[in-house]
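Worked example

This section walks through a single chain of length 436. The input is the sequence exactly as stored; nothing has been trimmed or padded.
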Amino acid sequence: MKFTKMSLVAALLIGSSAFAIDNVKVSGDAKLFYATSDEGKDSDLFDKASSAADAALNLNVTADLVKNDLVAISAGAGYTVLSTLGLENNLVSNVWGGAHGATTGTKASYGKGLGGAKVENANWMTEAWIAATAGKTTVKLGRMELDTPLVFTETWSIEKNTFEAAVVVNQDIPDTTLVGAYVGNGNGNEVLGQDERGAVTTLDLAAGAVVNESGDFTTYGTNGAYAVGVINNSFKPLTVQAWYFDLTSLADAYWLQADLDASTLGVDGLIAGAQYASVEVKSNNNLGITNTDDSSTYALMLGYEVKDLVTIKVAYSSVDDDGVLGAANTATSTGKSKLYTEAWWNYGKVTQLDTDAYKVSITSPVQGMFDLGLYYTDADQDKLDNDLTEVAVTASKSFGPLDATLAYVYADVKTPNDHDDDETSNMVQAYLTLNF
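Given that input, the structure is written out below as tokens.
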């Protein structure tokens, strides 16, 4: 298993594996997603009313503007078109993407970002940036993808959120990456609501549509955010990272993580990791929150990998009962977190206050035919019985440029004061992605 020194660096790299014309590179993908669930009263698998589908076309262009011994300057742009292809009139009654126009009906509870039956197609510019590299320092400005522990671009959905930001990355120190960033705007669907205990109005980044309607960009958080990160790999088996986030006029957050690949230490296949996150609401926050206690989260992971055969991981996380913001997902756009225990589909449960969570995952290439994934997640929210049990099974296969995934998800999702004995659901999903 290879650990990346800094996942944000990947977002800064401007290369492409697609075809090139002189110094211009074009890449993208076309996606078609489908989901059906039996959650809800009188809902059955594959019924039109309990199914959703959507299609998306993503196009990205990068170009080298200047390249000499002193500096390299590049630019890039990306555009997304989201369309139902009229499927909501025939095979399904719901859609995936929140970027669609006004919808009718309520959001389908079995899927994030699934809207009503009557929708408008959407299109928006996902990226528009310029980057300059001198020596081992890169500066990138504009609209872009980001990937930090608490501010990141979601990739699980048919649509992805991006940010309007300024980022600096330096690698002059051996085996060390330094990152500084300011995030002013984003088009992720952040909403203001209640915390996990329903006690106060605060920044609620719970699971929902990934992108705002029409892909519109608005102020990130309350007044933007600053991030500083250090990633070090001096001891080769170990990658450590430390992050500080200043959510302007709202909170201060920290993220620490260490990932170990013990193969070079003579323990072939052994992998392990530890995470710690903490957040404190500022006393002068502009939402009027009076509880400024620290809220902290920690997670541990232990795994074993047999190359080309199987990878098994076991993880545990715990969120304390203090504060009002879940530490691990303070600045994400939908409630999905980077915790080792995050569920495969039902995001937001493992990061609730006063929650212990467990996750077991097994992934394996099955005789070279397809990649099989088995995932079990259990989240126990102590006071409100706001619990989750999820089992997901996935089968993935690539046919040249075409990636296909079929998934089954069983979930027992409880909500506070929910005494309904029948809380379980079954979901089937299909993902097709054509890369070019």
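What to look for: The chain is about 0% helix and 50% strand.
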